[in-house]
Amino acid sequence: MAFLMQNDTRFGLDKKTQLPGPVQLDSGVAFAPVDFAYETYGTLNADKSNAILICHALTGDQYVASNHPVTGKAGWWTRMVGPGKPIDPARHCIISINVLGSCMGSSGPASIDPVTGAPYAMGFPVITIADMVRAQALLLNHLGIETLEAVVGGSMGGMQALSWAALYPERVRSAVIIASTARHSAQNIAFHEVGRQAIMADPSWNNGAYYGHEAPAAGLAVARMAAHITYLSEAGLTEKFGRRLQNRDAKSFGFDADFQVESYLRHQGLSFVDRFDANSYLYITRAMDYFDLAEPHDGVLAKAFSGTKTRFCLISFDSDWLYPTAESRRIVHALNAAGAAASFVELSSPFGHDAFLLEAPEMNRIVDGFLRAGESR
Predict the structure, then answer these.
(1) Does residue 317 sit within a domain?
(2) Could you tell me if 193 and 93 lie in one domain?
(3) One of 180, 280, 320, 349 is an active-site residue; which one?
(4) Residue 80: what pLDDT?
(5) Per the domain annotation, does 6 fall within a domain?
(6) Phi then psi dihedrals of residue 239, to 5 deg
(7) Omega into 22 within 30° of 0, i.e. cis?
(8) Are 102 and 61 in contact (CB under 8 A)?
């Protein structure tokens, strides 16, 4: 059993390990062995009470607060995680794990199947959000962490945080759920299906068997473009781009990127294919679509939290139409019905769903206050 007890002061330790497993998946498959790629920040204290697990969103990864090795860009949540930030390595032992099914080092479709010696591709088992959490629990067991001070996540990360509280309530003292939901709506599923069809319509997809050959970059780029629209808001797009043309002097009257917003979306799509795997996109979006925390509890969400002692903090944004405030309210009502300790706030932002990744001082103050209140208990 490994312990994160070393007095290593480097900020952001990139780690990989393979565990024999298995992880028992919702599909009935006992998946093994299991590869994990993860980062740690800070040091686990003597009584192992200061561990915080940060769960990433669909296209995120373990590089929450350190430079991404492919893009060279700063971590995706440096506004929340780091020295002097609400989640501070001086106070917390922070762990961020690349989810099962992803493509940044944890087991996924691009990983090598030990039976065949080739990438799993579409032979990788179907996964769910709960499966991702079970895999994370396996790694935390290996690291000697029995109880989490908090599990924190936005978007799909919030789904994982909710699942942690439902599956392992005795292991989670606090949960922070930001811009998330307890189930995917028909609209959410529909947008994901457009992206999946774009990938599968790309001739290079080849039924998922494209490893070692040309990847379905065009399809994946379109999928990213379609999804990225849902992360924004009309007000944010209007403020940032309006109907401004790339060339203010003339229209091309063709299908080049005349409008600035077109150029922006194309850039998002093209840059995405450099760091993400198309098959992983298929698997993870499907896992999100399957997500319905109430389903295993007779459709009653409150039953998922029955008897929980976990403290909950939920944050939504008024311009988020992907996971609107009504979704967070539904979770809060269920927590109240279960007798759980829950706080909730809706914040105002013009930036839509992506607001949780951007500069949001109010969100930081709320998360900081909530975590500090838990530390004093």
Answers:
(1) yes
(2) no
(3) 320
(4) 98
(5) no
(6) -65, -40
(7) yes
(8) yes
Q: Does 56 participate in catalysis according to the annotation? A: no
Question: Which tokens belong to 32?
Answer: 């093994």
Catalytic status, residue 353 = yes
* Residue 236 pLDDT class (50, 70, 90 cuts): confident
Considering 284, 316, 343, which residue would you say is the last residue of a domain? 284
33 with 164, same domain: the answer is yes
Annotated ligand binding at 14? The verdict is no
Distance separating alpha carbons of residues 131 and 136, to the nearest angstrom: 9
Active-site hit among 155, 174, 280, 328? 155
Domain total of the chain: 2
Catalytic residue among 92, 184, 192, 353: 353
pLDDT tens string 84-96 = 999 999 999 999 9
Residue 163 is part of a domain; what is its CATH number? 3.40.50.1820
Give yes or no: residues 233 and 306 share one domain.
no
Contacts of residue 28, defined as CB under 8 A and 6 or more positions apart, other chains included, come to none
Residues 89, 173 share a domain:
yes
Hey, what amino acid is at 195? Answer: G
Final residue before a domain boundary, out of 249, 284, 319: 284
Going 45 to 49 to 50 to 51, the CA torsion angle's sign is positive
Q: Mean pLDDT over residues 68-81, rounded?
A: 94
Q: Is 47 annotated as a binding residue?
A: no
The CATH number for 238's domain is 1.10.1740.110
Task: Tell whether 1 is covered by a domain.
Answer: no
Could you tell me how far CA 328 lies from the centroid of its own chain?
A: 17
User: Over 80: is that where the pLDDT of 254 sits?
Assistant: no
Gyration radius of the chain over CA positions: 20
Query: What is the model's pLDDT at position 14?
Result: 80
From CA 97, how far away is CA 59, in angstroms rounded? Answer: 13
Q: Is 8 among the residues known to form the active site?
A: no
* pTM of the full structure: 0.94
Parent domain of 103: 13-185+286-375
H-only helix segments in 209-293: 217-231, 234-240, 260-272, 278-290
